[in-house]
């Protein structure tokens, strides 16, 4: 973990006397180096509390909620990545792709770069290994979906803009196999994906980087060529405005789309609390009870455990201040009970004080956006992500599945 920079101690102050309520005291006798060190600690604590109050979360949690999270070995990159994928193949955790500002953040004119690196983790107690293999291209912020034996990446963003490509990643022993799938009908970045009944669904997204109108479209791709040719098929559009950086879940022949962010007619961003469900074969999306608060960029795909969808990370409001002063994202998580069709509060994400606001990475742990999620070794695992404006983290968090189900509304 990056250590705090030592507090600079100013030269001794010139002695002078001041009176306050008739009492005279010597300023230099009070403002000693030890006093200044203590003051800096107090200021750091106050700033941390203020930042927590500014977080776009809603509600309070009992003390100790964060203790259910543990840190696995961090990614072998000091900055970390956002917009990665993760999944399991042959029992190993696989993660790769992503974007970062590798040498300085955006407010210091840092440049966003994209990755084709792939990392593997053999067990929860192991160290990450970097695979000698690479993705077919450097890419991040794709629509990602996982099954028991494959990882799907659709669209995404790189230095050339939004992409339409689609690939399937499988494993043959320790070797990764990359299979090209039919390209999307048009480029899409920041979309969301899920696999249900051998069909790959892609929802929402942006047609171009910087676009001010998000997609309402839903597309699906048959993954069983013996049933029908591999080709994208248009599915029912979302009933509300288009969104991007939403999160998805899949369960019992249904696709769920949760949160995200869209735009008003003037192009201003509007965080979404909407929740939609598409039953396979249905002619329209069902509108479900909304989130207790909007969630933009929550980890995706969402973990689904015993009929409950876990919405973790993200934010509720667009931070109005300067990027350098960004306080971070939501600690609070939400759980949706599919049977009861109701929301409740989940466990809090852990948060640590900001050590260096001008660093491009933060060792955390902290609430995140744009991070992938999967279930592995009876844990919900979240890899990397963005923890403040343009700042990435290499942190890998894990929480036991049963901990999610014990959370209750407070």
Automatic annotation (TrEMBL):
Q: Which domain of life is it from?
A: Bacteria
Statement: the UniProt record of this protein carries the keyword Membrane:
yes
Keyword list (alphabetical) reads:
Kelch repeat, Membrane, Repeat, Transmembrane, Transmembrane helix
Which species is this UniProt entry from?
Lacipirellula parvula
Q: Which InterPro entries match?
A: Kelch-typ_b-propeller (IPR015915), Kelch_1 (IPR006652), Kelch_domain_containing_8 (IPR051746)
| Protein name, as recorded | N-acetylneuraminate epimerase
Q: Where are the transmembrane segments?
A: 23-46
């Amino acid at each position: 973990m990056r250590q705090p920079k030592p507090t600079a101690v100013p030269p001794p102050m010139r002695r002078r006397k001041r009176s306050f309520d008739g009492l005279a005291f010597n300023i230099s006798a009070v403002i000693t180096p030890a006093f200044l060190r203590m003051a800096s600690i107090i200021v750091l604590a106050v700033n941390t509390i203020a930042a927590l109050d500014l977080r776009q979360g809603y509600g309070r949690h009992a003390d100790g909620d964060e203790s259910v999270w543990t840190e696995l070995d961090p990614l072998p990159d000091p900055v970390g990545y956002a917009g990665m994928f993760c999944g399991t193949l042959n029992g190993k955790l696989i993660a790769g792709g992503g974007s970062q500002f590798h040498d300085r953040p955006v407010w210091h004119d840092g440049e966003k770069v994209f990755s084709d690196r792939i990392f593997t983790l053999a067990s929860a107690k192991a160290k990450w290994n970097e695979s000698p293999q690479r993705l077919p291209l450097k890419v991040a912020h794709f629509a990602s979906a996982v099954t028991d034996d494959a990882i799907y990446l659709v669209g995404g963003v790189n230095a050339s803009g939004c992409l339409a490509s689609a690939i399937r990643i499988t494993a043959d022993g320790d070797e990764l196999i990359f299979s090209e799938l039919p390209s999307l009908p048009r480029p899409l970045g920041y979309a969301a994906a899920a696999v249900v009944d051998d069909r790959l669904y892609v929802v929402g997204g942006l047609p171009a980087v910087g676009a001010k109108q998000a997609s309402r479209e839903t597309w699906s791709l048959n993954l069983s060529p013996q049933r029908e040719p591999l080709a994208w098929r248009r599915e029912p559009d979302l009933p509300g405005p288009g969104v991007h950086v939403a999160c998805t879940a899949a369960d019992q022949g249904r696709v769920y789309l949760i949160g995200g962010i869209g735009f008003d007619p003037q192009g201003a961003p509007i965080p979404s609390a909407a929740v939609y469900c598409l039953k396979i074969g249905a002619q329209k999306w069902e509108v479900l009870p909304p989130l207790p608060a909007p969630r933009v960029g929550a980890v995706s795909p969402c973990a689904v455990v015993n009929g409950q969808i876990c919405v973790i990370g993200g934010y509720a409001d667009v931070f109005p201040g300067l990027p350098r002063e960004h306080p971070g994202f939501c600690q609070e998580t939400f759980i949706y009970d599919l049977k009861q069709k109701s929301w409740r509060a989940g466990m809090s994400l852990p948060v640590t004080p900001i050590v260096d606001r001008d660093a491009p990475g933060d060792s955390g742990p902290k609430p995140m956006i744009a991070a992938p999620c999967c279930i592995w070794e009876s844990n919900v695992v979240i890899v990397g992500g963005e923890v403040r404006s343009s700042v990435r983290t290499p942190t890998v968090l894990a929480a036991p599945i049963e901990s999610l189900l014990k959370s209750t509304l407070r």
